[in-house]
Amino acid sequence: MIELININKSYGRGKNELQILKDINLKIDEGEYVAVVGPSGSGKTTLMNIIGMIDVPTSGEYLFEGKLVSKLAERELARIRNRKIGFVFQSFNLIPELNALENVELPMIYAGMKPTDRKKRAAELLSLMGLSDRLSHKPSELSGGQQQRVAIARALATDPPIILADEPTGNLDSKSGSDVMDTLESLNSKGKTVILITHDREIASRARRRIEIRDGKIIRDERAGF
């Protein structure tokens, strides 16, 4: 499903060049639950941005479902980001002027779904997240845990096969963080591929595969039981 081959990422040139990722080779199969763990500055968020097609590598190849990402037109990249990958961020990235229902509707608007269909699906997803009584609430009227559950509902809007979560518990208390992890595990059990970016080893230990990155390199790749 996802294959990175000799991926490098640098910023700047010459003496000012800063290499963030160094010869990353990684393959993630359909249905996996993977945690990418590493300290701040290790390159894990840059790796996530490349996997999510938000950023491009300086060199190397990225194959998504067998296709070279570098050969895809921007329209196709946008379609993949909308239909194939659901993004969950540490800062939630909800639109403050929109209520919960409207935030979850956004990806479906871009996908061209009919208003009645997208409203129905958004309400169903929020209900699944335990937020059926918060549909008309704006982000400022929700707790951190509730905002993150809205963000997860939004990530599921177009039923993507991949959930890409960047520090999804970083701004949450321990109880809310545990609830979010339970939700991600439940999604994986239903067939979603979950890729979790975190600096927290305890959070990472809940995944079935842990990839440790340090100074831009993968230094460990272990399956469940590590």
From TrEMBL:
Keywords for this protein: ATP-binding, Nucleotide-binding, Transport
Pfam family, any one: ABC_tran
ABC transporter domain ranges (all copies): 2-226
The keyword ATP-binding is annotated on this UniProt entry: yes
Superkingdom per UniProt: Bacteria
Example of a GO cellular component annotation carried by this entry: membrane protein complex
GO molecular function terms noted in the UniProt entry: ATP binding; ATP hydrolysis activity; transmembrane transporter activity
Protein name: Putative ABC transport system ATP-binding protein
Species annotation: Caldanaerovirga acetigignens
Taxonomic path: Bacteria, Bacillati, Bacillota, Clostridia, Thermosediminibacterales
